[in-house]
């Protein structure tokens, strides 16, 4: 059913809407607002003037105006006067404008005074902003108005962009837009109160909302393609609907990853003008969950052809999204070369018939005849169909899919290349946001060139590195497995953004810069092997000056080529973003030639390295002096668990990602993340979120709930006040109670001078910030501040003397971290609470395998497996400290306010010999033969390093960039942790064994670094050998709290006795580790994420156990919490948590299992109580009360079910090494009652053994209670 009266013309339909909603807002631009009545009055007045110029049926009225209210008034007035409007774009060059006016012969042109000089033809002109109508023609007697049902008369004429030959004037009658709008209203209607922003395809969009009572919000020309300005306008104007090209939307989403929250009123987005990629669709759906995304396909000659909701048509297996079902299926034809319709699913050329077609191309009868051909499928006299030139196919779902352009394939040395396929793969497999692929050159010199807009790199989407000749070997390697060799572009050009046509909004292929296969004059000789060359600087000059870099010579002067002071500032910004360090404007002004700017950039990077290195002892002494103005007020140390706000640096790095995750999981604080930008601004926050999200996604850590706790602080460690303004610096200082400073520039090749800005200067500014507000600083350091240690590790008290630093610390990274430590220690001496955490070599996550892609040891192991040979180096030890252990230890130690020491060591004190590593790998199916180091290196270069066999391998690239020496492998720095261990005892260090290596190799395989997954065959054989029929064989146990500590130990102990186990805990990643240990005994095991405070989750765990393993015979309730608290300190949150977990959690477990046990007449309930359930301990009052509750509950259950076949056991452990010891935040209670006595405490396995004892007694024997304690700590 029609929404509009499709028998009437556009001015009649508008007039009816004026009568229906006279006082509603019809039109808004930057300066003016019109109600429907006011707009109607303006239209009527101008229409009357137009009729005096002889405007009547099919008379054209030229409109040469910016997108504004005047534009809409002019078009409506032309229609009401009985004529049609002619689109004259302000972006037209003078010659083109003259040609269009001559071709179309308008009766009058409506414009502004500022544009009248552009009109050279003798045509009457009305300047709407003039005080009186201005004309250069004679007035005529008005003609009679045409009938309002005359839908065959012209409505408007618009000219094609003229990319091929002469521009064509497309003449559309009223019938086309009237029917078009009605069909679109059936897809998505608009109503009074809706606010529709009109920008791209303005003439197509501006009238539609005015026929239904909505408000047209006009987007100015200069705003349409400025993402920042466009988003600001959409938000400020509370726009509910708009249309964008896919290129524009992709640009907006790239810059504003939280676009949906910026424009909460936006409910409808129409996409048109280009195909929509599946990647863009998925991204848009995620970022705009509450908006309807409509993919519309149209042409100026046909109006709408097909339209559909992207959510209904997106197909993850396709590169592009279908455009939805045909608007008028009976007039949509997909034909083969013989003009016959093809079968569903087959591609052919798309033809469109029906009543929405344009009338003609004015004054081009032959062109019209070629494009609008007789419709052999329609018996209506004179029926036509339009040849779109697009390839399409109809899908079984009814949707139409555009598959390309007729003749769009590139012919290259006998091959046919589809650019869309190449563009899609480049965006998928490289760090590229947008891409256009085209051909360059002629004949045998014809090559593919890729124009790319870079994206943030990740492990599976590496950067496109373009060398001086315009080639990218790294990109070729990344694409080698996905594209045929002839389809991989030979030349690459990086752009800040793809040029777009000012009229259509599509990618402007004509304005893509010409690629060059040679570098600017002098680049090869002057650049040497330095990664920054003249070609890099010339490319940025090109972007700033709009001068092709092929014309730029080394001796050219920036200002001679059109540069000025503002463009020099733009150059400074672009250079800083490109190279990752600030390039100051004054330095660029010193020598403004191209070669001079190259020298400036290199000098800034190196920090005058030679001069600094020559005076290194003096520089170290000076840099290690803490500024006098950093004077903290004496303040107490703050536990990170008590902090309201934490500042975290380094969050886009490997360790930083896990620190953020653990801070989110283990504190309730707001986490302010300092994210590096060359020139920080508040507008960088969206970019900061995107970088953090991308990093955490790569590590498998991201979930959207993190955003609730996250705050982005754009900054720069190398800048004074971290790049913040004075007020913002003071504001952050006042808010933050704890700073975790993990950021550093890590490079073992760069000299001290190149790293001092971020590593030394950044630490100094962090201390300055902390001193202002008295924040506690947790500084993340490295074992690199110490020299090689030999067999025995360095104790925590070791600090290298300054005179030994240049001699014993040979890399700039270790030297800068040593100076930074000195600054932290001196701040501590002045009263600032500080802690230093020295890390060793950080390896992947022990449970997920998530790896640091730049780790040298990983590269050596992976490449050894690839070769089948491993380096045989005497004394080479593998220090592999899993990142989750390091992160959890830092967060836990940051709660240990009672610890007197400042320095903590987190490296592995006993690194394993690499021979045992390769032996363990052999058990996993990766057999290698030992080979002396020099021979191994030679073989590697032959087979991998300099051969195609290694191309595309990330680990190959690491070793190509710097093969270590045998001395480097032998001389590792070992950190003894005797003083640290008591304070982080609750965080268990994973062992470097075959189980850990299996986790790592599985992850390496998943990332494509290894040719095959680890084999579990040997391990399974061992499991079968030891999996004898145990005393618990055939039984099923449910264990809560199974992710660590006693719960994990119990699960393994039960499996060893033959019991199938269902594991429940909140942390699935930790449960996976427990599950692997259980399955190593050859028993079945399942896991479920289970919070015991949720009855529903506990019931789901038990139900899953029953369905997948069998009826539950054993319940072991291990989940629990323990907090040291003083009763006088009223720690209500911790008390309530104690009751919820220890008491309610037990009841949920009992209610889910006991009824089934009783119905079967057998079962065993075991619950972890405590010796605090027998005797109240000071500092543990509420905890003791919860365990008295456990004891009472179990006693009642035991008495009430006697004779029913149920056994009930209470396990009462004393002091045990578990996570419970590190939960407390009441420093007073911990200090007074929680200090270790020095006695050897229980291991979780000790408790597990007691449970196995109770479970394996004869059926008639019930072990009711077991009190198990450290020998030297009896109650």
TrEMBL record:
Chain positions covered by the region annotation Disordered: 504-529
Domain of life: Eukaryota
UniProt family annotation: Belongs to the NRP synthetase family.
Organism name: Penicillium freii
Keywords: Oxidoreductase, Phosphopantetheine, Phosphoprotein
GO-annotated biological processes: secondary metabolite biosynthetic process
CDD domains, A to Z: A_NRPS, SDR_e1
Domain Carrier: 528-605
Protein name, as recorded: Carrier domain-containing protein
SMART domains in UniProt: PKS_KR
Biased composition (Polar residues): 514-526
Pfam families in UniProt: adh_short, AMP-binding, NAD_binding_4, PP-binding
InterPro entries xref list: ACP-like_sf, AMP-bd_C_sf, AMP-binding_CS, AMP-dep_synth/lig_dom, ANL_N_sf, FAR_NAD-bd, KR_dom, NAD(P)-bd_dom_sf
Any one GO MF annotation of this record: oxidoreductase activity, acting on the CH-OH group of donors, NAD or NADP as acceptor
Listed SUPFAM superfamilies: Acetyl-CoA synthetase-like, ACP-like, NAD(P)-binding Rossmann-fold domains
């Amino acid at each position: 059913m029609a929404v509009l009266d499709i028998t009437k013309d556009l001015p009649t339909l508008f007039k009816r809407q004026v009568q229906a909603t006279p006082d509603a807002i019809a039109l808004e631009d930057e300066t003016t607002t019109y109600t429907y009545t006011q707009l109607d009055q303006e239209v009527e007045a101008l229409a009357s003037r137009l009729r005096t110029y002889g405007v009547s049926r099919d008379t054209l009225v030229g409109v040469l105006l910016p997108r504004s209210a005047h534009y809409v008034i002019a078009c409506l007035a032309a229609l009401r006067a009985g004529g049609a409007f002619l689109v004259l774009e302000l972006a037209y060059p003078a010659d083109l404008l003259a040609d269009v006016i001559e071709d179309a012969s308008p009766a009058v042109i409506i414009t502004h005074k500022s544009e009248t000089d552009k009109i050279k033809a003798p045509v009457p002109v009305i300047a709407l902003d003039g005080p009186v109508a201005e004309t250069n023609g004679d007035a005529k007697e008005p003609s009679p108005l045409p009938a309002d049902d005359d839908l065959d008369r012209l409505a408007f004429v618009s000219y094609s962009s003229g990319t091929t030959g002469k521009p064509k004037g497309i003449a559309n009658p009223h019938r086309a837009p009237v029917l078009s709008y009605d069909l679109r209203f059936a897809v998505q209607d608009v109503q009074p109160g809706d606010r529709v922003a009109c920008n791209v395809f303005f003439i197509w969009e501006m009238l539609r909302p005015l026929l239904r009572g909505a408000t047209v919000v006009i987007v100015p020309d200069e705003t349409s393609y400025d993402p920042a300005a466009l988003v600001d306008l959409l938000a400020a104007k509370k726009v509910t609907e708009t249309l964008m090209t896919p290129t524009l939307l992709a640009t907006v989403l790239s810059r504003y990853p939280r676009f949906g929250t910026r424009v909460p009123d936006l409910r409808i987005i129409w996409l048109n003008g280009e195909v929509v990629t599946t990647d863009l669709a998925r991204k848009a759906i995620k970022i705009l969950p509450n908006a309807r995304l409509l993919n519309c396909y149209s042409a100026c000659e046909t109006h709408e052809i097909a339209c559909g909701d992207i959510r209904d048509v997106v197909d993850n297996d396709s590169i592009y999204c279908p455009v939805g079902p045909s608007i008028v299926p009976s007039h949509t034809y997909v034909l083969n070369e013989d003009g016959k319709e093809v079968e569903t699913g087959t591609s052919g050329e798309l033809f469109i018939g029906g009543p929405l077609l344009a009338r003609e191309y004015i004054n081009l009868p032959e062109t019209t005849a070629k494009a609008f051909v007789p419709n052999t499928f329609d018996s209506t006299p004179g029926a036509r169909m339009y040849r779109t030139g697009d390839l399409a196919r109809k899908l079984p779902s009814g949707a139409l899919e555009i598959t390309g352009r007729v003749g769009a394939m590139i012919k290259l040395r006998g091959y046919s290349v589809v650019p869309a396929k190449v563009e899609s793969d480049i965006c998928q497999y490289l760090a590229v946001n947008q891409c256009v692929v085209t051909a360059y050159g002629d004949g045998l010199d014809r090559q593919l060139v890729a124009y790319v807009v870079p994206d943030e790199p990740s492990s599976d989407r590496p950067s496109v590195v373009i060398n001086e000749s315009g080639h990218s070997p790294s990109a070729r390697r990344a694409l080698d497995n996905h594209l045929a060799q002839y389809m991989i572009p030979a030349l690459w050009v990086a752009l800040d953004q793809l040029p777009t046509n000012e009229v259509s909004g599509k990618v402007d292929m004509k304005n893509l810069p010409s690629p060059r296969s040679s570098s600017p004059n002098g680049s090869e000789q002057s650049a040497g092997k330095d990664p920054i060359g003249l070609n890099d600087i010339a490319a940025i000059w090109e972007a700033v000056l709009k001068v092709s870099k092929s014309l730029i010579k080394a001796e050219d002067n920036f200002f001679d080529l059109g540069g000025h002071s503002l463009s020099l500032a733009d150059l400074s910004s672009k250079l800083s973003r490109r190279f990752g360090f600030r390039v100051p404007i004054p330095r660029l002004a010193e020598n403004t030639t191209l070669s001079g700017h190259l020298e400036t950039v290199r000098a800034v990077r190196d920090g005058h390295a030679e001069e600094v290195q020559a005076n290194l002892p003096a520089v170290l002494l000076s840099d290690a002096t803490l500024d006098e103005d950093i004077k903290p007020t004496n303040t107490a140390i703050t536990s990170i668990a008590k902090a309201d706000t934490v500042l975290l640096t380094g969050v886009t790095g490997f360790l930083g990602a896990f620190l953020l995750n653990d801070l989110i999981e283990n504190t309730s604080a707001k986490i302010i993340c300092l994210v590096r930008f060359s020139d920080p601004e508040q507008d960088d926050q969206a970019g900061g979120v995107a970088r953090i999200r991308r990093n955490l996604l790569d590590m498998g850590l991201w979930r959207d709930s993190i955003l609730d706790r996250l705050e982005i602080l754009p900054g720069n460690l190398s800048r004074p006040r971290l790049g913040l303004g004075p007020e913002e610096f003071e504001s952050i200082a006042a808010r933050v109670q704890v700073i975790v400073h993990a950021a550093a520039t890590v490079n073992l090749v760069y000299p001290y001078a190149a790293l001092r800005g971020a590593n030394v200067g950044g630490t100094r500014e962090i201390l300055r910030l902390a001193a202002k507000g008295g924040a506690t600083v947790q500084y993340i350091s490295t074992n690199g501040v110490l020299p090689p240690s030999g067999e025995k590790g360095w104790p925590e008290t070791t600090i290298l003397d300054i005179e030994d630093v240049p001699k014993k610390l040979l890399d700039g990274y270790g030297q800068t971290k040593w100076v930074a430590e000195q600054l932290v220690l001196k701040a501590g001496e002045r009263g600032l609470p500080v802690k230093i955490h020295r890390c060793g070599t950080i390896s992947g996550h022990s449970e997920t395998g998530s790896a640091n892609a730049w780790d040298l040891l990983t590269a050596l192991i992976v490449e050894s497996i690839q070769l089948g040979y491993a380096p045989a180096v005497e004394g080479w030890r593998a220090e592999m400290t899993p990142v989750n252990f390091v992160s959890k230890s830092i967060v836990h130690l940051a709660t240990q306010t009672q610890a007197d020491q400042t320095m903590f060591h987190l490296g592995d004190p006993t690194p394993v010999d690499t021979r045992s590593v390769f032996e363990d790998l052999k058990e996993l199916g990766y057999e290698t033969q030992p080979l002396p180091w020099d021979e191994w290196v030679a073989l590697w270069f032959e087979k991998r390093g300099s051969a195609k066999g290694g191309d595309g391998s990330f680990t190959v690239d690491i070793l190509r960039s710097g093969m270590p020496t045998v001395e480097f492998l032998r001389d590792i720095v070992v950190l003894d942790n005797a003083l640290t261990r008591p304070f982080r005892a609750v965080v268990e260090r994973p062992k470097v064994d075959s189980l850990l290596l299996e986790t790592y190799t599985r992850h390496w395989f998943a990332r494509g670094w290894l040719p095959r997954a680890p084999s579990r065959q040997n391990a399974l054989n061992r499991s079968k050998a030891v999996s004898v029929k145990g005393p618990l064989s055939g039984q099923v146990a449910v264990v809560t709290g199974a992710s660590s500590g006693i719960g994990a130990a119990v699960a393994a102990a039960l499996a060893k006795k033959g019991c199938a186990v269902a594991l429940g805990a909140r942390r699935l990643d930790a449960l996976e580790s427990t599950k692997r240990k259980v399955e190593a005994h050859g028993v079945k095991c399942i896991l479920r994420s289970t919070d015991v405070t949720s009855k529903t989750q506990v019931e789901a765990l038990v139900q899953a156990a029953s369905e997948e393993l069998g009826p539950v015979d054993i319940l072991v309730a291990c989940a629990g919490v323990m907090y040291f608290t003083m009763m006088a300190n009223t720690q209500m949150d911790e008390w309530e948590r104690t009751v919820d977990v220890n008491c309610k959690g037990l009841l949920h477990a009992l209610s889910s299992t006991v009824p089934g046990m009783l119905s079967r007449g057998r079962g065993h309930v075991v619950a972890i109580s405590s010796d605090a359930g027998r005797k109240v301990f000071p500092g543990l009052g509420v905890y003791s009360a919860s365990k008295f509750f456990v004891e009472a509950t179990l006693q009642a259950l035991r008495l009430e079910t006697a004779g029913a076949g149920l056994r009930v056991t209470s396990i009462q452990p004393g002091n045990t090494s578990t996570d419970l010891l590190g939960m407390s935040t009441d420093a007073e209670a911990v200090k007074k009652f929680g200090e270790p006595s020095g006695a050897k405490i229980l291991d979780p396995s000790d408790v597990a053994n007691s449970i196995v004892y109770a479970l394996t007694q004869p059926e008639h024997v019930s072990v009711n209670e077991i009190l198990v304690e450290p020998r030297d700590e009896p109650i």
